[in-house]
Amino acid sequence: MTRYEASEVFAHTSFLDGANATYLAELYALYEADPDSVSEDWRNFFANLGDEAKHVIADAEGPSWGAWNRGPSWTDAAAALPAAIAPAGALTQAEALDAARDTLGVRMLIRAYRTRGHLIAKLDPLRLTERGAHPELNPETYGFTPADYSRPIYIGGALGFEFADLGQVLAVLDKTYAGTIGFEYMHISDPEQRAWMQERIEGAEIQFTEQGKRAILSKLIESEGAERFLNVKYTGTKRFGLDGGESMVPALEQIIKRGGQLGVREVVIGMPHRGRLNVLATVMAKPWRAIFNEFRGGSAHPDDVEGSGDVKYHLGASSDREFDDNRVHLSLTANPSHLEIVDPVVLGKVRAKQDQAGDTERKTIMPLLLHGDAAFAGQGVVAECLGLSGLRGHRTGGSIHFIVNNQIGFTTAPRFSRSSPYPSDVAKMIDAPIFHVNGDDPEAVVHVTKIA
């Protein structure tokens, strides 16, 4: 059926809808019985219709055999209601309606930011993609004008406010959802999990002590300095550097540190080639002399390469790290050139270790999987692991997935490698919360790992 443009606009904006027919008929009948029983705008509307009162009332009452006439009629119900008398200082009906519209509009705006705010967040360090304004995040979409920004509005505890003006609301929303972190969690079906997320992110400051900032800077210098040295010393040697993703190193340190505080005693890591040598040295504490020896064709442990018998960026390692008197064992699993095939190996290894240790709550041994953007979106084993993650016999109590978005998959741009906006979208199938972070803001990267 063809619908012209004017009709389309009318259908989306008019209150004359089939779902409202009964209500309008009853309201019209009340008007015919007593014009003062409805508001002025409805009086003006009904006065212009010109229908006879008896027809309007008969239509509202319905047929004599209908269910409507088996109980009190609308006239009896209306007569039984006490007259509404506004107390001194109370809002008029028009003012109350405006206040309700303001509250509804602000709550819709807040929900839009929670759902769509990541679309305007500053996530791309290279600024390859333009991110314009989104209509759902524009206050004008909900009927607000610049004159409304300083008026107190009741928002019922959202964002920590009972009353707030629009300027305050937008300040919190922009700070939370439109900065260098983009949050996706409104697809989660459990309301308690969504509320847990909101409590920890909305209005929260990214705060680190001076010692914490120095620790982040130290790891950044160490990881970037290593890449520069390898590039100069072994120019042309395939090393799959971490260039551009150095913020991952302090973030991994934070995961291990925070995990130790929460009772994690072992972290099993699986990762691709990119950044592996850097992680081996800066996170796993593998001596640089052993790594340099491998560059020269030697082996750090000739009799123990965890069965890989492969090149240096395929090898695994293990070590113990201690943070705040909490010792955590790290195990980096060897993997082949099929980048994501290490995922089920890590998850199976963690599950086996949990069963052997009697960890029925699955809190002491944690899987940590690192990915490249194209591999995470493109390889089916990722979706298979996610699909099995909640099943009895497979569940590990949760895993952390860290995706380094290079914005290119070997030689392929994102627009040619996937149909989804983000490489992480496949994780929505299990209601996993997703944090997008600008890699040029290392404090933000470390901050979200604390939440994760």
Quick overview of this protein structure:
It is built from 17 helices and 9 strands.
What does it look like?
With 452 residues, the protein is an alpha/beta fold. The chain has three domains: 5-75, no CATH class; 93-201, TPP helical domain (Helix Hairpins, Orthogonal Bundle); 210-418, 3-Layer(aba) Sandwich (Rossmann fold). The protein is 42% helix and 10% strand. The protein contains 17 helices and nine strands. The protein has helices at 5-13, 21-33, 40-47, 53-61, 74-80, 93-116, 166-177, 191-201, 210-233, 248-261, 276-282, 288-295, 342-357, 373-378, 380-388, 414-417, 442-451; strands at residues 153-154, 163-164, 181-184, 266-270, 317-323, 326-332, 365-372, 400-404, 434-437. Strands 5-6-4-7-8 form a five-stranded mixed β-sheet. The longest helix has 24 residues, at 93-116.
By CATH's scheme, which homologous superfamily of the largest domain applies?
Thiamin diphosphate (ThDP)-binding fold, Pyr/PP domains
Morphology call: elongated
Strand content: 5-15%
Query: How many beta-strand elements?
Result: 9
CATH class categorisation of the largest domain? Alpha Beta
User: Order of strands side by side in the largest beta sheet?
Assistant: 5-6-4-7-8
CATH architecture of the largest domain: 3-Layer(aba) Sandwich
Structural class: alpha/beta
CATH topology of the largest domain: Rossmann fold
Question: What descriptive keywords fit this protein?
Answer:
single chain; 452 residues; alpha/beta; Helix Hairpins; Rossmann fold; 3 domains; five-stranded mixed sheet; two-stranded antiparallel ribbon; 9 strands; 42% helix; elongated
